[in-house]
## 1
Amino acid sequence: MTHDLNGARRAALSELAPLLVKLHLLLLNAQRKDYEAMYGPQPALAVLRLTIDSPAFGWLRPLSRLMADLDAQLDSPAELSYGNWSSLQIRVHELFDPQTQVGGLLRAGTAQLQLDAAQRAELGDYLRRIKAEEAALLAVAPDPEAW
């Protein structure tokens, strides 16, 4: 793989990563607020445990895993392999396509949140921007022959 191609892929992932973090924070805070409305205030460590173990937060786990894997790829000095790149492309697509199992889970989880108008607008903005970045990911040398 050429250095330029690897740089283009890293640039595309670098554009996507902060959007995923902002989306995740919005969704996590809203889910925490809803959870605490039912069960009372939770300390930060308890919320961390809930994100890992509780079914109430389970719909957020695919997004959390994608963010962790994306960060690992960006932090690695090694070039992105075709397999890693393709996997990230597919996972981004599946996560934000409501027709897929994981995308449907994210959509259903998001729909049940008690978001105010400003949060709904923010959510819509993040999702539009993520879809644009997904298109950019797909546009960066999808052909395995380019490797």
## 2
Amino acid sequence: MSHFKSPPTASPEPQSGWPARSRPATELSGVTQFIQFLISGGSATLAHWAVMALLLWGGAQALPSTIIGALVGSLLNYCLQFHWTFSGTGTHRKAIPAYAGTVVFGWCVNAGLFYFLTSIAHAGNGLAQVCTSGTVAVINFILYKRLVFNERTD
């Protein structure tokens, strides 16, 4: 008779009585990555607005103020998305042109969808912009993840 106890066996169900997690860990990390994407984009938007507000406060015209603010926001967004959200593995030489193309594409989708929703579907401006922003965010996330911030061997 042995005085040593055998180690407990792993059970397929957690001891809490709740069923085991049904989603794979990769899906959960995708959710986390999408949240980081939204935080990065939100931070870039705030930077855009802050620069624009400072320039307007200093007497600059609205159009150049928003253009400069958008450039600052885009630069911050690129840095945050590359280094934090997607942990970019490619080179900036490849990622920056892909990012710029994605930004231009996003502007086009934004304008086209907003026009469609307000002029053809007769949605209000607020609803149209919420729908448009959400659509563009999902498209950008997919493009950033698949094309912009991963290493390609082309």
